[in-house]
């Protein structure tokens, strides 16, 4: 089954971390395929996405009430919510012994707690319609680790398990919950850590079996599939889109 160019006509989507990278690509792709979109991000640059049917929302997703306000914005502007994409994410590269509690808790707040809160509020408004899809952006780091990514790996592992548990709770209400196990994607997520984040990710991606990092649009395609009726039998899955990074050596 191939994608209909207007397959999300009549549906409303909320995407977090939508100002750049994967989130921006998802927002634009779903909008191009017919969805009305709330694009949420802490960066005011998300306002550059404004156009008919696409409403930017500048917000700190870790704040109390942010999830409720984002879901309310979807209802206020477009009357419903059908799709939630929990994309916002941050990373820190520190060994555990060098990490402060504040470092740890900031990663969990953005990557896991905000996703939980947005999913909780989304399920509340999707349930009466008995229809909805939630897609969480996880990572190969949900299953694999290397030095300096303990906080990030823990947050993505938690997000994968949140995906599975919520999927079992939500499916009786017609709501499918899945995740994408993303690999290295050329985005700005590392810009606060290295001099040239996209270049670092491009080089790191060269170590995967596919020998390259992904473009944001490649991950957006997986998100769009999981959010669509084409994925109607996929429930509680973490679909790996990591260029083979998660395949065990020698497999």
Could you please describe the fold and organization of this structure?
- The chain is of the alpha/beta class and 251 residues long.
- It is 37% helix and 16% strand.
- It has helices at residues 21-32, 66-78, 101-126, 150-170, 197-205, 216-227, and strands spanning 12-16, 36-41, 54-58, 83-86, 132-139, 175-182, 238-241.
- The chain is globular, with a radius of gyration of 17 Å.
- The model has no long low-confidence stretch (mean pLDDT 93).
Summarize the structure.
The chain has helices at 21-32, 66-78, 101-126, 150-170, 197-205, 216-227, and strands spanning 12-16, 36-41, 54-58, 83-86, 132-139, 175-182, 238-241.
Sum up the overall morphology in one term: globular
Helix content: 25-40%
State the CATH class. Alpha Beta
Number of distinct helices: 6
* Model regions low in confidence, pLDDT < 50 over at least 5 residues: none
Domain count:
1
Secondary structure: number of strands: 7
